[in-house]
Design brief:
Length: 459
Amino acid sequence: MRMYDVIEKKRYNRELTKEEIEFFVKGYSNGEIPDYQASALLMAICINGLTREELVHLTFAMSNSSGRLDLSELKVPGKYIVDKHSTGGVGDKVTLIVLPIVAALGVDVCKMSGRGLGYTGGTADKLEAIEGYDINIPLEDAIEQVKKIGVCLISQSSDIAIADKKIYALRDTTATVESIDLIASSIMSKKLASGVDKILLDVTVGSGAFMKNLEDARKLARTMVDIGNLAGVETKAIITSMSEPLGRTVGNAVEIKEVIEFLLSNEETLYSNKSKDLKEVVFEIAAYMIKMSGLGDDMEQNKKDIFRCIVSGQAYKKFIELVMAQNGQVYDVYMDWVGKELPMPVIKDTANYLKEIHAQNTGVIVAIDSKKIGEALVCIGGGRIKKDDEIDYAVGFDFVKKTGDVVQAGETILKAIYNDKDKFEEAFGYIEDAIVIENRLPEVADEMKHQSHILDIVE
Ligand code: URA
């Protein structure tokens, strides 16, 4: 078989066979097929797409390109191991909140998370904003940890789906990332190799997500759900909005602080409308994880259990257990709003400057473009442009106002925390462009505030 013929066939939009796809994946992984030929094939796939059969062959070939994670030691009769994966966004701290909640409620989770690249953040980076937290513990230790405390959160293992790792790096430099077929096969190859029984996908849509519109998000979700189910791993997808940053904060240290605040909520703060978007997504995903794990079929009851788990302090306790198990530093501190002394993670949050950004005019905030806010974060050093860039954990944005809020000219919309004045000047342009305030009727503002962030469920 010659790679030249495989490329030509796909260029003419003819269906590749299982053997041809495996030939490409194997040959590229072991260095026999050069970058230029792999790039040509990826571009042809980007332009012509893949049939369902080709997609399945590509996903399975990448998934089988190296070792699989063996989670058999964690299997318990009647209970399924569920993984949760988000297609990424800005201010997305859902994993950090959901995992301690579901683990406290008996769902075992062994989760691998990636680093951020470009304007989207990564859970692995956020965790490293905690002093000492080790995201690189060996897989055997991670499994032991799940046996002990029910949860671990580590970085994506380089031993899993090696072919995807190589192909993704090439796509990143050849403008071939934005293909629904390639994104679906890339994500699912890793998920299928991670040894779980069931997969719950959070497919984000909006300016700060890969998918910019609902139609494409539905296509991506359907494609991934079908691949998972074909592989015998029950897969569901929740489509969530990422048109404005999720929750109140964007950045690494600031997001960890928001996670802590969320997990320390009392009945009053959890009922209140603060970070309504984040709360809605957290409750939906956590309730689905409980359902898929076999521990509770009734979604409403699951949500009640989640509520109690948070306000009783169980979820925060589990979060601290997770942090400490992975060497994160904690100190005891008296918390006014909780009324007692509790362990608190040591966070890398030393920043020199804080600046309040004010509304330019009076009206309703109709948009806070999450991509632009993500780009502003990269400008001040909180995200990466290249994979090996160092990041500044302390910098970020804390939103006082969100979409649908009525503001007076001069009122504070967000607080920017940064270390470098020149970098902030550049970021300021993105922030100004991101926030749109218009003169609208109060009913319009109200409607915006009550819009659901759960846009669809694909099963
Ligand atoms: N995340 C992945 O793992 N792969 C893609 O192609 C896009 C997002």
